[in-house]
Amino acid sequence: MHTFRLSAMIATSLFIAACSNSPTGRQQVLLFSEQDMSTLGAQSFEQMKEKEKISSDSQVNRYVQCVTRALTTQLGHQDGFPGWEVVVFDSDQVNAFALPGGKIGVYTGLLDVAENQDQLATVIGHEIGHVLAKHSNERLSRSQLANLGLQISSVALGGTEYQEMAMAGLGLGLQYGILMPYGRAQESESDIIGLRMMSQAGFDPRESVTLWQNMSKASGGNQPPEILSTHPAHATRIDDLRAEINRLPPSTAKRPNCPAPVRS
Question: How far from each other are the two terminal CA atoms of the chain, in whole angstroms?
């Protein structure tokens, strides 16, 4: 009983000390420092680059870099957000990810579904939204609080016994290249953050709806019911995007010009 009460007191103290608000005002518990998360993200990204095939297609790389630069530059830094590194992986996966510390991975298979710069900006903006909202920290913190027997420190992030928990916090499987979904609240929040970013950068936010319609077609309509999935159902996601688009102020940004590569 004494041990239980002590654990409860520790959990309560940590919860109160680590309470924060996300960019949309949602309450979060964040136990880890920005430096801890950036280090974990950078280490994981380096390992992914060693294991995954990196695209050498110059047109594809210029295109992805151009879209990302347009998004990150308007975060408040003239030459883009310091530390953002973008790598294109040569894979049929229709996916992308972003890690703490400013690391972005885009799979070439995504370009078969994201048909133009605006749709690509939808996905990359969404992934950057996860980083800006500290979703990895939030998920890792929840895992840590659920396992009070583990040492809560930066050392815990680096120990091999915590690798699975840490990778799950980042949204990665232990087998790199397997991307794990965030929760529905986090996914919806990243949709909103990404939509605002792409609009402020001069991209057409209406293309976000088309992008998710394309995603729905690419999945063959095989997405499980929303109640059984951590991702919002495509129809719900599209409805939420349309509602947010109607609330966006007009953008005064110059429209980006990122020439799409010719895909065979």
Answer: 65
pTM above 0.90, yes or no: no
Q: Establish whether 127 is a catalytic residue.
A: yes
| Structure-token match 């095939």, residue found | 53
Tokens of 123: 């996905």
Q: Could you identify the residue written with the tokens 């995504």? A: 110
Contact at 8 Å (CB) between 65 and 86?
Answer: yes
Task: Answer whether 252's CB lies under 8 Å from 202's CB.
Answer: no
Query: Would you say residue 8 has pLDDT above 50?
Result: no
Distances (CA, A) of 177 to 65, 75, 101, 231: 20, 28, 18, 19
| All residues at 6 or more sequence positions from 59 whose CB lies less than 8 Å from its CB, including other chains | 259, 261, 262
Pick from 93, 133, 117: nearest CA to 208: 117
pLDDT, one tens digit per residue, over 125-150 is 999 999 999 999 888 888 777 665 44
Q: What are phi and psi of 228, to 5 degrees?
A: -100, 5
CA 235 to chain centre: 21
Annotated catalytic residue: which of 52, 85, 115, 127? 127
Q: Do the Cβ atoms of 93 and 55 come closer than 8 Å?
A: no
pLDDT digits (tens, 9 = 90+) for 183-221: 888 999 999 999 999 999 999 999 999 999 998 888 776
What's CA 170's distance to the chain center, in Å?
9
